[in-house]
Write a structure and sequence with these properties.
It contains four helices and 20 strands. By secondary structure, it is an alpha+beta fold.
Length: 346
C-alpha cells in the first residue's frame, strides 16, 4: 500500500473513530514504525526497521491520554561514543537546539517535551531519514517511513483527530473535546497463605510431574525437567515444570492442583493476555510472598524484542497485572518493551 493510500485509509478510520475509538490495548507495525497503546490509551511510537536490520539509533514518541498530556520525544543511541550532529535528509536538523541531554540509570538520551517536542516532530514529519554524523560500526539512522501514519493512529486512539493538539494535521476542534484517560483497573489484594512444607513441596512436585509427563515430554529433550510447587490457598497448589530449554528461552508446563492426593488438576483461572498472546513461556516464576505469577520471553538473545507479563493471585483467580510486548527487534532493552496493560498500584 502506498503512503498516500495508507494515510487516506487511516483518515477514514479515524473519522469514524471519534464516536467509537480504537480498541485498546493496541499494537500495530506500520512500515518502519511500531505504535503501541495501553489500556489507558497512553501511546508510544517507536522507530523499528521493517527489515529487522540492526540500528543502534532509535526515536521514541510518547503521549498519555487526555487533553493536557504533553508529547515526549527521545532519541536513543545504544553504542559508545556519544552523540554527533544530526542531519535530516542531508541537511542539519534546525530544531536540534530543542533537544536536551538527560541521564537515566546510566544511559544518556536526547529528549524534548511539550512545545519543544512538537517543534522537532514538525520538522521530522516531512523528512525521510534522520542520521547522526560520523564513522561507526553500525549506521546511526532512523527511517521516517511510516511516521505520519503512526502519528495519525496515535491521534485516533486518543480522540485527537482534527483537534488543536493533534500530532498529525492539527485542526479546529478544541482540546476540551479530547477524552480523558479511562479509569485504571484496581486488582483485588493477595490474601497470602501459609507456605507448603518441604515434604509437601517435594511430594506435590514429583507426583504432578509424573502424572502429566505425557503432556509435555519430548524424545530429544536435552535436560531433565524440574518442578516447583507452591501453596495457592489452603486447598490448592501451583506447580511449575520447566520441561526443556533452548539457547535463551525455556518451555514450561503450569498446573493448578489439589494439595491432597491424587492431586487432581484444576482450572488455572488465569485472566487472558491482550491481543491473543498465550504467555507462560521463556522464563516462568511465581513469588509466594506477593502472589505474582510472571513470565519473560526473549525474541532473540540480546532481548531487544519479546514479551513479558504478570498476574496477581487473589485467593481464587490470577488477575492480569502487566503485559509488555515488542515484536520488532529494535535495539531496545527488555525494560523498554512497550507496556500494554497497567493497573493501579495497591
Amino acid at each position: 500500500m502506498s503512503r498516500r493510500m495508507l494515510i487516506s485509509a487511516l483518515l477514514l478510520a479515524a473519522g469514524s473513530a471519534q464516536a467509537v475509538p480504537e480498541h485498546v490495548p493496541l499494537y500495530r507495525e506500520i512500515k518502519d514504525w511500531v505504535v503501541a497503546c495501553d489500556n489507558q490509551r497512553a501511546c508510544q511510537a517507536l522507530s523499528a526497521p521493517e527489515s529487522f536490520g540492526y540500528s543502534p539509533f532509535s526515536l521514541q514518541l510518547e503521549r498519555a491520554a487526555g487533553a493536557q498530556a504533553p508529547l515526549r520525544l527521545s532519541l536513543h543511541y545504544a553504542e559508545p561514543g556519544g552523540y554527533a550532529p544530526l542531519r535530516l535528509d542531508g541537511r542539519a536538523l534546525s530544531t536540534a537546539d530543542r533537544l536536551h541531554l538527560t541521564e537515566n540509570q546510566g544511559e544518556t538520551t536526547l529528549g524534548a517535551e511539550g512545545t519543544d517536542a512538537q517543534a522537532v516532530l514538525a520538522e521530522l514529519r516531512n523528512g525521510a531519514q534522520l542520521r547522526m554524523e560520523g564513522e561507526r560500526e553500525y549506521e546511526a539512522v532512523v527511517s521516517l517511513s511510516g511516521l505520519s501514519a503512526a502519528l495519525l493512529l496515535m491521534d485516533a486512539v486518543q480522540g485527537r483527530v482534527n483537534s488543536r493538539s493533534a500530532l498529525y494535521r492539527p485542526g479546529s476542534r478544541p482540546d476540551s473535546e479530547v477524552p480523558a484517560a479511562p479509569k485504571v483497573p484496581r486488582l483485588r489484594a493477595y490474601p497470602g497463605v501459609t507456605p507448603l512444607s518441604e515434604v509437601e513441596q517435594r511430594d506435590i512436585a514429583q507426583q504432578v510431574m509424573a502424572a502429566t509427563r505425557s503432556q509435555w515430554v519430548e524424545e530429544d529433550m536435552s535436560s531433565e525437567p524440574e518442578a516447583e510447587a507452591f501453596a495457592l490457598n489452603e486447598r490448592e497448589a501451583l506447580v511449575i515444570i520447566r520441561t526443556w530449554c533452548a539457547a535463551y528461552n525455556c518451555d514450561f508446563a503450569v498446573y493448578r492442583v489439589d494439595r491432597q492426593p491424587p492431586y487432581a488438576e484444576r482450572d488455572l483461572q488465569l485472566d487472558p493476555l491482550p491481543l491473543g498472546h498465550e504467555g507462560l513461556s521463556g522464563w516462568v516464576s511465581y513469588n509466594p510472598d506477593t502472589g505474582e505469577l510472571g513470565y519473560l520471553y526473549k525474541g532473540r538473545g540480546i532481548a531487544d524484542c519479546g514479551e513479558s507479563g504478570s498476574w496477581r493471585f487473589d485467593g481464587e483467580r490470577f488477575q492480569l497485572a502487566s503485559f509488555s510486548f515488542l515484536g520488532r527487534c529494535a535495539a531496545r532493552n527488555p525494560g523498554e518493551w512497550p507496556e500494554l496493560w497497567r493497573v493501579a498500584e495497591p
